[in-house]
Amino acid sequence: EDQVTQSPEALRLQEGESSSLNCSYTVSGLRGLFWYRQDPGKGPEFLFTLYSAGEEKEKERLKATLTKKESFLHITAPKPEDSATYLCAAFSGSARQLTFGSGTQLTVLP
Amino acid sequence: DAGVIQSPRHEVTEMGQEVTLRCKPISGHNSLFWYRQTMMRGLELLIYFNNNVPIDDSGMPEDRFSAKMPNASFSTLKIQPSEPRDSAVYFCASSGTGGSQPQHFGDGTRLSIL
C-alpha cells in the first residue's frame, strides 16, 4: 500500500529562521509528487510538481526537492505570512489518485 | 480565472436530514474530485469523475452518500440521511487533461450534523 509520511507534524520558527519540511514516501513506481499549502478555512493551494529524483522547483522563499525516497520543502528566511499547513501528495499511475501526507503545520513568529 | 467554487461554505443541519453540497469546477477541466477532510483521517478521496463519468467511488463511505455530475460545469455530493459522524470539511477539486495535472481545490464546505 502506498504511504506518504510528513515530518515534523508541527514546526515553529522565528521570522528569518530557515528550515526544511520532510515528505517521505513508499509509492511503487512514483510518477510525481505535489506540494500544497493550506491556510485555515481554505482549500489546499497548489505549489509545485516534482517528477524525478534530483529535480528542484522554487517560488519566492520556497524550494522543493525530490530524491528517490523523499521530498523536502526548504523555507528560506520565512515570514509570518508563510504560516500554513503544507501538504505533499504522491502519485504512481495517475495524478487523479493521490496519496496525501497528513501535513506539517508551520508557524512563523514575528 | 475563477477557481473551483463550492457552496454552501457552511452547513449546519440535524441528524437525518438530507444534505446537498455543490461544486463548479474550473472551466476546461475534465476531472472532478470530492474529498473529505477530518483531523483524524486527513484528506480522503470519496469519488472522482472523468468527463462527467464516475470512475472510482471506492472511497464513498456508504450508500447514504451519492454524487452526480450532470454536465461539465456542475457536480453535487448528497448525503441522505445525514449522521453526526459525517461532520467534516468536504472539498471539491478539478484538474485538466493529462495524467499528471495537479488538482486545484475549492475552499470547501464545513458540514456540521447535530
Describe the model.
The complex is a heterodimer of chains A (110) and B (114). With 110 residues, chain A is mainly β. Chain A has strands at 3-7, 10-14, 19-26, 32-38, 45-50, 56-59, 62-66, 70-75, 84-91, 99-100, 104-109. In chain A, the strands form two sheets. In chain A, strands 2, 4, 5, 9, 10 and 11 form a six-stranded mixed beta sheet that branches. The radius of gyration of chain A is 13 Å and the shape is globular. By secondary structure, chain B is mainly β. Chain B is built from no helices and eleven strands. Chain B has strands at 5-7, 10-13, 19-24, 31-38, 42-50, 53-56, 65-71, 74-79, 88-95, 104-105, 109-113. Chain A binds chain B through residues 31-32, 34, 36, 41-46, 49, 51, 87, 91, 93-98, 100-103, and chain B through 4, 31, 33, 42-43, 45, 48, 50, 55-56, 91, 93, 95, 99-108.
Topology:
The complex is a heterodimer of chains A (110) and B (114).
Chain A: E1 3-7, E2 10-14, E3 19-26, E4 32-38, E5 45-50, E6 56-59, E7 62-66, E8 70-75, E9 84-91, E10 99-100, E11 104-109
Parallel strand pairs in A: 2-11
Antiparallel strand pairs in A: 1-3, 3-8, 4-5, 4-9, 6-7, 7-8, 9-10, 9-11
Chain B: E1 5-7, E2 10-13, E3 19-24, E4 31-38, E5 42-50, E6 53-56, E7 65-71, E8 74-79, E9 88-95, E10 104-105, E11 109-113
Parallel strand pairs in B: 2-11
Antiparallel strand pairs in B: 1-3, 3-8, 4-5, 4-9, 5-6, 7-8, 9-10, 9-11
What is the CA-based Rg of chain B, rounded?
Answer: 13 Å
Order of helices and strands of chain B: EEEEEEEEEEE
How would you characterize the largest beta sheet of chain A? 6 strands, mixed
State the low-pLDDT regions of chain B, or none: none
Largest interface: A-B, 24 and 23 residues
Strand content of chain A: over 45%
Proportion in β-strands of chain B: over 45%
Helix content of chain B: under 10%
The overall pLDDT average of chain A reads 96
Number of helices of chain B: 0
